[in-house]
Amino acid sequence: MEPLAAASSLCKHSQNITKVVLLSCGSFNPITNMHLRMFELARDHLEDTGQYRVVKGIISPVGDAYKKKGLIEACHRVEMARLSTENSDWITVDSWESLQPEWVETCKVVQHYYDEMLAAEQNNDDVDTVKYAKKRRVEENYFEGSSYHKRRDGPQLMLLCGADVLESFGVPNLWKQEDIAEIVGRYGLVCISRSGNDPHKFIHQSDMLWKYRKSIHVVQEWVTNEISATHVRRSLRRGRSIRYLLPDNVVDYIREHGLYSDESERKNADVVLAPLERNTGASSS
User: Fold this and answer.
1) Are 285 and 257 spatial neighbours (Cβ–Cβ below 8 Å)?
2) CA-to-CA distance for 3 and 94, rounded, in angstroms?
3) Distance between CA atoms of 174 and 276, rounded to whole angstroms?
4) Contacts of 219 by beta carbon, 8 Å cutoff, 6+ apart
């Protein structure tokens, strides 16, 4: 192939690659090595398709108003997440969700970060020599017509989760059906498999997920890692070692602040989980 032709082919190939930002929402109570590993697995999977380039990962800890049993203060969970990503050159922590006075639906959290990503992209366009043409193209391609019509260019935000979150879509009143459609159909989902969970089977059983199955990327984790925050908290209550389950600086932070005890695990024990309260009108006893 001639040099010019090769350069042209390379340019066209790069134009067809979509930049992706991965967003992970959750309690991170506390953050574990598995939470971080999920980002690496997702990036490898997406980039291996030749269609995507993952440019950023965002960890968004849920706010205290989520009211999950054993959920310690957001300030600690955010700081532990920040400590865990100190050595990463692409995964960051954002405290916006954790600072909201009321629980924010995941769908709205995804929309918030997508809007921020789009604004940053437009700001980059504004300093380009062809800024007006590019900005107009961004605006014209921004979800015109259908709510689930993806832009034909520009970056894409995908929600990163484990198979347990995917299956939670089937729990009555935990998720609004329109929110699931918005998250999966409009943005996209990257789901990391875990032993005991079969994402493909659950997608097949759900009409909603089947409809948007092409927007769901299932990543098989062959080196199984069953670290869970629940297991970590249990070990801490029992005075057992948690070394190598979490980053060392997170382990040190937990010990320094005396986090996770029998008392903290009883927190919110008699409180209705925020999404269940909101979606059913239930109230805390």
Assistant:
1) no
2) 44
3) 6
4) 41, 42, 45, 190, 191, 192, 193
Asked if 199 and 161 touch (Cβ cutoff 8 Å), the reply is no
Report pTM.
Answer: 0.86
Tens digit of pLDDT for each residue in 136-183?
A: 444 444 443 334 444 446 799 999 999 999 999 999 999 999 999 999
214-228 tens-digit pLDDT: 999 999 888 776 789
* CA atoms of 219 and 216, how far apart (whole Å): 10
Q: How confident is the model at residue 10 (pLDDT cuts 50, 70, 90)?
A: very low
Nearest to 274 by CA among 112, 101, 80: 101
The number of angstroms, rounded, from the C-alpha of 40 to the middle of its chain's C-alpha atoms is: 13
Contact 157, 114 (CB under 8 A): yes
Tens digit of each residue's pLDDT (9 = 90 or more) over 73-123: 999 999 999 999 999 999 999 999 999 999 999 999 999 999 999 998 888
Nearest of 220, 232, 221 to residue 259 by alpha carbon: 232
C-alpha span between 24 and 57 (Å, rounded): 8
Residues in a beta bridge with 61: 26
> Cβ distance 58 to 262 under 8 Å?
no
DSSP per-residue string spanning 182-245: IIIIII-EEEE--TT--HHHHHHH-HHHHHTGGGEEEE--SS-----HHHHHHHHHTT---BTT
